[in-house]
Amino acid sequence: MSAFLNLSVNAQPVSVPEGATVAVAVAMAGTAFRTSRGGEPRAPLCGMGVCFECRVRIDGVAQLRACMVPARDGMEVLTDG
User: Fold this and answer.
1) Residue 7 in contact with residue 25, Cβ under 8 Å?
2) Is 54 helix (H, G, I), strand (E, B) or coil?
């Protein structure tokens, strides 16, 4: 049985399997990563850190690519969405 990590996305508690990325946690929270200038929800396009659509703030550090950061217990993630 794999372990689960507990973190928050926009103050909403989320549990993800150990080894998951922050992008998985945001997706499980059902939150948009970013919004376009027109207010449309945006999501990761590449999943490998090239498109920068999954930028989030993690523990106060802005502009981190959620698809590249492993989730860890106690993280606080904020999105623009």
Assistant:
1) yes
2) coil
State if pTM tops 0.85: yes
72: tokens are 């860890």
pLDDT digit string (tens) for 1-34? 579 999 999 999 999 999 999 999 999 999 888 8
Between CA 1 and CA 42 the distance in angstroms is 33
Q: Residues 40-64, buried b or exposed e (16+ Cβ, 10 A)?
A: eebebeeeeeeeebbbbebeeeeeb
Helix (H) or strand (E) holding 74: none
Stated length of the chain = 81
**Hey, what's the torsion of the CAs at 76, 38, 48, 2, to 10 degrees?**
40
